[in-house]
């Protein structure tokens, strides 16, 4: 049962138990809540109000009153009677909230809290005071009588939060809870105010009666003191009085009267950002003990150590800080405490300076936790966390005076130089090594404490230094016993006896669960990277007892007939020792022991499961002699499945017979399968001839059609005319609307005529329009369609060329079906091939020219545009002429080269003669299309450049005069190129004309040619057909 602090003058009082959970006060005083929030804690996780013991202890310590350090209890487990024991077996703390019996084995966390698996607080502990550890309380020492709340049970809270006796005398007062909400509620025997639901909503304390306690109503000022102030002041005064009454002789030779903290020296000083109260010299005289730091910073402290807001309300409390003496006596070499400021603590609790020399040591707090946190000491030798709490205290240690000179061999006697340059002591131990001098010549000479080796005259002839044998490396722990084992989700590695023998020390236990450990204790992932490390649990830390047979089962109890049931009513065990009748209703632990309330074992239980009821064997004689089909079924004569396979492979057991017990026997006399009867309700009649078909109807010619109009049967009974369009069921019956059978059909399929498949089926058309077989033999040719669009297309079974959707886009014919080609056709094919080759060569020539001339035209355009943008008064026309003229000449040169190359393709004029006699209306080849596109680009580039340049220099007289005559250097060779192409390939010019007209450049090019008079000249020479072929929109009559 949980305990809570008692009211002043009494011991800790047990809290009322409320069916499975400890009763914790739900309300707190305003100052308590302020103090809680100032420390960064929620009210539920704050420690209870100080007891009289703690108040007296705090008063006795005076200025050394600092928060209790709970870090020493962190990581320890709760033991018997709710006590927390250290490694030496001494009790260090005790449970103050929660049921001690339920918390046994739980680990103490931060701030003394005990958390469950979900991180929720289930209990709290405090450090065990010295008096409590000895088994005595201050209440007993002072003779105080414990408070009896039982006499208050049933009394109700009246107005003002007072509880009055039947005589009207005030006997208690509310100290926790909202006074307005508690009026009318009654008290329980623990001094708590209980609401209608039985929940604790407040708490009271006994009001001290006259003659028993010193009055707590004394007030040193005009400010009303809070309940906490009164209790602290009252207890401090009473403790001082009782201490003053003790004779000096009884106190011992050095006993001193306890002194109250001198808080008057803090009056008028303010609280800084660290929660400290410092004087003008920066000396810390006090620190904040209660209150919210952010609300108190900058506020003054009064002579009683209280911090008040502008309305006079108490918002915090300050306690005096004990200033340690910097030196104990004249001969002491103890450094002052401020010299430790800024230093940190190591794992051993030592405070080391920059030179690595210990200058202090930890006296309060967890050394490892403070080292890991990285906290630094302040000028008062205190470690603080980021929440403003003191987590440790340190003191300086006496410093030894360093010797002026280093004497490495001071502690040795009889040192001499031995073999190999070693220095040996009188026992022959190697303690040094020669570093200067000839070691062979120095053998046998003495070595002084400074390491010097002297000759007979006192001259230094060598020097030695200390040598210490290196410590042997610690033996590596043998982790081979963990090899092949796996950790569980809790990070434990279980041994063969079910007891943890290892544990995960690196990595996430949940992610490492189930992964194997190697001989070095490492765990690797699939990529070959180490993801975890395990260690052996020391023998003295291992569990020696395995889990009992009933581990994991809750609520085990003995019931009738000596059986044991769990909390769900399942039978899991049976009484093996003891009187089952007398043990009925008793609990069973995980080891199977039945223990009485005194701990005596009254009986023992062993695991037990009730036998299953025998099931009557099914009569499988109807299956005897039947055979298994491939589906694993046993079918009777009518085709109905009366049995089915329940074990064995249907494919392997197909065709084997079944005996009268439903067993299937192998060739070697062993049972290889078993069957069972199919219940009557699950048996199905045999499938009809049309099973699997849907929407069957009677069609023309007495045939039965399925949903896709395929013939699947025929009518064998009934009037076919009357049965037309009627449905047919899976049994082949034709039924009318009334359900009467008026006809019968049977399965029947028409004979399928063999389809002829073209040998070219699946082949593709190549670039030559040919179709070849797998061996590359020519088997057919494209006879219909545009070869340019049909290259690579597939041929279907009928010899048609089809697209991806199966549409006919051409036709191929087998070679044997193609008529012989006439000489004229052969000649025409040869001519076409020559023209395609010619067009390819022309494309290469024109493409090269286009690249060169395009760059020249671009530069002409840039120069003319720049001149056009330049203001007339800044324009230098002569410079424009100097820039453009060479470009025009260069472009004309490239065009002349192109013209010469084209004409070189037909030096004797034979190709031109053949082209002239050939019709220009034929279909152009892909090569001719490409050539036409290049000519279009070249023509449009040159013509556009000339036209734009003329327009831009129209207002430039000098440039116009110099440059306009030069444009013919570009236009004349251009038309010569067009003429050369037209003479060799007449069909190309029509394509060029259409492309130029499509760009809107037809009129421009035609005007350019007309301006040069070239079209008239060609007409006179009989070459007018060339300009006509271009069809650029010019007037033929001109």
UniProtKB/TrEMBL annotation:
Report the residue ranges that make up the DUF6987 domain in this protein.
Answer: 827-1025
Q: Does the keyword Phosphoprotein apply?
A: no
Pfam family name, one: DUF6987
Its domain of life?
Eukaryota
Keyword line? Membrane, Transmembrane, Transmembrane helix
Q: Does the keyword Cell membrane apply?
A: no
Task: Show the ranges annotated as biased composition (Basic and acidic residues).
Answer: 29-39, 227-240
Q: Region labeled Disordered — which residues?
A: 1-66, 215-260
Q: Which residues cross the membrane?
A: 974-996
- Supply the InterPro entries for this chain: DUF3659, DUF6987
What is this protein called in UniProt? Answer: DUF6987 domain-containing protein
According to its UniProt entry, this protein's organism is Blastomyces silverae
